[in-house]
Amino acid sequence: MSTSEIVAKILLEINAITLNPKKPFRYASGILSPVYTDCRVIMAYPKKRRLIRDLYIDAIKKSGVSFDVVAGTATAGIPHAAWISDKLNLAMVYVRGKAKDHGKENLMEGIIQNGQEAIVIEDLVSTGESCITSANAVRDAGGKVSHVFSIISYGMKKSADNLKANKLKLVSLTNFSDVVALAGKLGYLNKKEMSTVLDWTKDPPVWGKKMGFE
Q1: Nearest to residue 21, comparing CAs of 203, 200, 177, 206?
Q2: SS3 175
Q3: Per residue in 154-167, is it b (16+ CB within 10 Å) or e — as a string?
Q4: What are the pLDDT digits (tens) for 137-165?
Q5: Do residues 125 and 133 make contact, with C-beta atoms less than 8 angstroms apart?
Q6: Is the whole-model pTM more than 0.85?
C-alpha cells in the first residue's frame, strides 16, 4: 500500500474520519458537511501515532527541506510536532489559536532564533488558514518557513490558492479523494455516496442547499 492508502486506512479504522452523506454534520461556521475529521483521536493509539510520526518524517526527508525547528499548529498539530521534534532531536515551538491576553501576549510559544528555518506541522488542511497563521507567526518571530506538512488535506482550491499566496508548499500524507476511494473499496460508501461526498469539496458553503438539506 502507498503512504496515502496506509494513512487513509488508519483514519477510517479509528474513526478519525467519519463520512455520512445522508446525515451531514453542521460545522461551527454553519455549513453542512458529509465529513467530520478529528485527528486528535490518533493520540489514543500508540502504535498508529508512531507510524504516523514516522510517515511524517519520511515525507519531510523526501521533500528535501532543511530546517532547525518544528512548529505545531494549535491544537491538533502540537502532539505530532512534539513527537517529530523529539525523534529528530530538534527544537519545537507551537502557535496558539490566538495571542494570550496577558503577560507577554505571546502568539507563538517557544524560542526561534532570527533566521532559523522551520517547518509547520498541521493535522488537517481545509482552507489552509490555520497553518498560514502559524507560518506567519514564525516569520514574525524572525524565522523562515517554506513547507507545511499535514496528515490529510481536503484538496480544496481555496487552500491551494491561500498557500500559494503565502509562499507555502503543502505536503500531505493523504488526501480526501484517496480516503473516499478507500472508503468505497471497504464498503463504507457506495458509488453514488462517493460522488456526493467528493462534490462537497468543490463548494462547501452551498453543498448543503444543493443536496436538499437546507
Answers
A1: 200
A2: strand
A3: bbbeebeebbeebe
A4: 999 999 999 999 999 999 999 999 999 99
A5: no
A6: yes
Cell of 181: 476511494
Q: Which residues of 121-149 are buried (b: 16+ CB within 10 A; e: fewer)?
A: bbbbbbbbebbbbbbbbbeebebbbbbbb
Q: Which amino acid is at 13?
A: E
Whether the CB-CB separation of 145 and 71 falls below 8 Å is answered with: yes
Closest among 138, 78, 146, 147 to 113, alpha carbons compared:
138
Q: Where are the beta strands (DSSP E) in the chain?
A: 17-19, 25-26, 32-33, 35-37, 69-73, 91-95, 108-109, 117-121, 124-125, 144-153, 169-175
pLDDT digits (tens, 9 = 90+) for 73-92: 998 999 999 999 999 999 99
Residue pLDDT, tens place only, 22-54: 999 999 888 999 999 999 999 999 999 999 999
- The tens digit of pLDDT for each residue in 161-206 reads 999 999 999 999 999 999 999 999 999 999 999 999 999 999 999 9
